[in-house]
Amino acid sequence: MLGIGVLMGIAGTVLMDVWAMVLERLAGVARPNWGAVGRWVVEASRGRVFHDSIGDVDELPGEVRIGWAFHYLVGAIYGLVFVLIVGRDWLDAPTFPAVWVFSLLTIGFGWFLLQPGLGLGWAASKTDAPWTARAMGLVAHTVFGLGMWGLALAV
């Protein structure tokens, strides 16, 4: 059961990344900057979680790899936590609403930890178009939920 949860989180993350590539190709929407996220992870591990702008912090060797690894680790953890919450019964008959609500709730970590940590403000409040960023995040997390649900259906 736990392994399925991890795989669900990875599948959701993969689908979210495919979604980001489609948006980039078809609509010119920039993909997430995993180098900045990697830099933030290193800085957070040193005790500095919040920044006025992560771009003001010197680039670090391997920050892109660290950001990508963190992205997939978080996805795997989300999948694991989800199956621990819903249990075997949900895995026996996966339904989308439960995983969708969970995937939407996970955006809270991005809005209230990662984005302020990068200097983007609470829920992207310091960006040029915060409501657009929020909506795009909710769509991306819905796609994440679809990926988790799809994997659960497949197994």
Report on the architecture of this protein.
There is one protein chain. This protein has six helices and no strands. By secondary structure, it is mainly alpha-helical. The protein has one domain (2-154). The chain is globular. The relative contact order is 0.19.
The best one-word shape is globular
As a percent range, the share of strand residues is: under 5%
Mean pLDDT: 97
Secondary-structure-derived class: mainly alpha
Helical fraction: over 70%
Report on the biggest sheet: none
Total helices: the number is 6
List keywords for this structure.
155 residues; mainly alpha; 6 helices; 74% helix; 0% strand; globular
Explain briefly what this protein structure is.
The chain has 155 residues and is an all-alpha fold. The chain is built from 6 helices and no strands.
Reconstruct the topology from this structure.
Layout: H1 2-27, H2 34-45, H3 63-92, H4 96-105, H5 107-118, H6 130-154
Helix pairs in contact: 1-3, 1-6, 2-3, 4-6
